[in-house]
């Protein structure tokens, strides 16, 4: 899968928000690579920088945000584009679906209008043609009776159906990369299962590259080919989904997995403490203050990703820990 | 705390359940847009629900949005007046009690809310927030000592009492919420999605705390959550609701190892497991469609419109909750125990 040219390539992305108390370093040097037809799961807790990374890639951060680094889709650099240029890329090269579909849809316009608007902004289709395309897209995302539904308003749709509409809008122009930011978090589990199916079908049928951002490790296990674990604005570990869950090398990944309720687990193992304040992140490894294996060496330089056992890990003590901490 | 623990354990709960809910019904009027006095119809949010909780045990209530689980919680605490049915606390009927007579009983039944950001007053110090129930119920003694004791009990430091909610993380705030609920030495705590707003690494700590407190103080929990793995972890009994009806109820291990209702099976099979191997091999029951409107619920079994097993009989008459052994009760005409989870899951 790595022989192919990457579709999305993010290099050393840094995002800083100036605040009254000083600069908040939300993203501190993140690399992301997504190949054709690949589903990358991005996992992290609140404040890990997972959403900010991809909002930066979409050009959707407020003007005050300072963005450095590179975001390329099929080799085209997106960082540094002005608003007009970026608008042409969004929906075509890179497209996004959000957690809350109701606030992302315009309540005063028919669903068909909102989809065909998106279609027409990137093509020469006439209004009737774009309307037909909207019906086609609704059918594609599994909305029953698309001919009726296309002229309805958002409030006439349930949560799951609205999220399907959002997906239809996002894939309307066959984007190179689809970014799904917690798209099922607000949904009930039986509806979540349906939406995951829709996204997976799009991935398989159109060989779409998808980035799936979530805090739910169950969803990642179900849907992702590769996983990238983020903490305090950096990637701490990444690799194929099976290795990440079977043999995690980073103490944070291990900690996350150990804190989940599982059959036969009488007692859960929380990660002590709380994520760091990004106004003043700790020196060296940001996970150090919460890490049971932290030593002096961890306070030195910020650890970078390096290969280990088929994964890439950002823990300087990873090899020792395989012996000290044992298998998970 | 030992005095408290022994006092709580040596109570009358050995035979009478701490909480006994029978045939609980709660209807809400749908008011017309023309005027609030005009009632267009009724929504039956909770329809004939019965369950009981023994002393020192946990009942997990699961269901999707609109299933009525939070309405049950509010009816139990008499924050909402049930339309009909009975709610007994330690054998005492609460429905129909006057506000005055119920007031002393409220000390023994407390609630922990979902959102630790919204449920604490930002202008009250944490110490004052925890002491507030003590003042309301005019508990004698030095309240600051009790606050310090409670903060320690939930794993915070006594000097945290002087701080304000914004100085705490989400997990710490939820601990404050628990401390406040414990202030009046309750016997029953209703927890409405207590960990769903928390990150997983923090959630584990709060879950452990709840289990420790239960063991130490002999508390009974009514635990409401949509996360099935969290409910499995903490519950002795599990009840599954759908559109205001009880679909299945029974001992946790029976429900999770051999769910008999097609809805429970679909719920369990829809919840992804944090294990890619299992996820790849799993057979999934994916329900089609959405939950129907509670204003106009389906006739007979309310789940039948989405049920893969539905037959004509399901539309005609509502299935009764029937005991299939060991207290495992199911409301379905075609119950059949199915194993949803692969047995290789445990790897702690």
Description:
- The complex is a heterodimer of chains A (328) and B (348).
- Chain A is α/β, with parallel strands linked by helices.
- Among the domains of chain A are: 106-173, no CATH class; 254-324, no CATH class.
- Chain A contains 12 helices and 12 strands.
- Chain A is globular, with a radius of gyration of 21 Å.
- Chain B has helices spanning 2-9, 69-76, 99-106, 126-136, 143-153, 170-182, 200-217, 228-234, 252-257, 262-270, 276-281, 312-316; strands at residues 19-31, 39-53, 58-62, 84-89, 92-93, 109-112, 188-192, 220-224, 237-242, 245-251, 322-323, 329-330.
- In chain B, helix 4 runs parallel beside helix 6 (170-182) and helix 5 packs across helix 6 (170-182).
- In chain B, strands 6-7-8-3-9-10-12-11 form an 8-stranded mixed β-sheet, sandwiched between helices. A 4-stranded antiparallel β-sheet of chain B has the order 2-1-4-5.
- Chain B contains 12 helices and 12 strands.
- Chain B is of the alpha/beta class and 348 residues long.
- Chain B has a domain at 260-348.
- Chains A and B meet through helix 8, helix 9, helix 10 and helix 11 of A and helix 6, helix 7, helix 8, helix 10 and helix 11 of B.
